[in-house]
Write a structure and sequence with these properties.
Blueprint (H helix, E strand, L loop, with lengths): L23 E5 L8 E14 L1 H6 L7 E5 L8 H6 L4 E6 L2 H9 L4 E5 H5 L5 E2 L6 E10 L7 H16 L1 H5 L8
Parallel strand pairs: 3-4, 3-5
Antiparallel strand pairs: 1-7, 2-5, 2-6, 2-7
């Protein structure tokens, strides 16, 4: 919950819970700060997504353009190269929103959290490429606030909401779009 101008705020800005920029943060992270209190509210998996037209025109054994991210340690993951040995980086971005837009425009395929790709009209999981573990989703707060009734109630509500949609985050369903 964001305090300054509105009760809730969706942002990529690094709000500081210690300075009370917000009461609660929902973060995707492997290692959230140890100075915060919280819990994993959902595990996640990621998959490769593209338009059906792109998939039909770009078999995995051919030259496949990939939309990669500046944050990746390896621009082409070894697990991808096992299935698509001629994959190449067509575009590199630092932003998931632009990557999704490029996938929707048919520029290439990109790895993204299952919940994001599976809910976008016009794109689907690329057959033959398995889901991989992705960073979990955490609900975090300042330790001094964890016993505040409204904070505890909100964190419980958010946790239940994510749990109810677990299959969407983990990709336990069949290939999205099929």
């Amino acid at each position: 919950m964001h305090r300054k101008n509105s009760p809730c705020l969706g942002t990529n800005e690094p709000l500081n819970l210690h300075k009370r920029d917000a009461d609660i943060a929902i973060r995707v992270s492997r290692d959230p700060p140890e100075s915060l209190w919280g819990r994993v509210i959902s595990e996640q998996r990621a998959g490769w997504f593209a338009t059906p037209e792109f998939i039909a025109a770009n078999p995995l054994d051919g030259d496949v353009p990939i939309i990669s991210f500046t944050a990746y340690e390896t621009q082409l993951p070894p697990s991808l190269l096992k299935r698509a040995p001629n994959a190449f980086v067509g575009v590199t971005t630092d932003d998931m929103v632009s990557a999704v837009a490029m996938v929707e425009a048919g520029v290439g395929m990109a790895r993204m959290p299952n919940f994001l790709g599976a809910t976008r009209p016009g794109i689907q999981r690329v057959p033959g490429l398995e889901l991989v573990d992705y960073m979990p989703i955490w609900a975090l707060t300042h330790p001094d606030l964890r016993q505040v009734p409204r904070i505890a109630a909100f964190m419980k509500l958010v946790g239940e909401g994510f749990k109810a949609r677990r299959a969407l985050y983990t990709g336990e369903d069949t290939l999205a779009g099929h």
